Amino acid sequence: MSTTSQLSGFYTLSSTERLERIARQADLTAEETQALAGALGLTLPHADAMVENVIGMYTLPLGIATNFSINGRDVLVPMVIEEPSVIAGASLAAKLARAGGGFVATADAPVMIGQIQLVDVPDPHASKVEILAHKEALLAAANQVDPVLVKLGGGARDVQVHLLDTAPTMVIVHLLYDVRDAMGANAVNTACERLAPQLAALSGGRALLRILSNLADQRLAYAKVAIPETALAFADFSGADVAHGIEQAAAFAAADPYRAATHNKGIMNGIDAVVLATGNDWRAIEAGAHAYAARGGRYTALSTWRRDGRGALVGTLELPLALGIVGGATRVHPTARVALKIMGVQTARELVEIVISVGLAQNLAALRALATEGIQRGHMSLHARQVALAAGATGADINRVAEAMIAQGTIRTDIAEKLLRS
Question: Which sequence positions are flagged as catalytic?
Answer without folding.
Answer: 83, 265, 281, 379
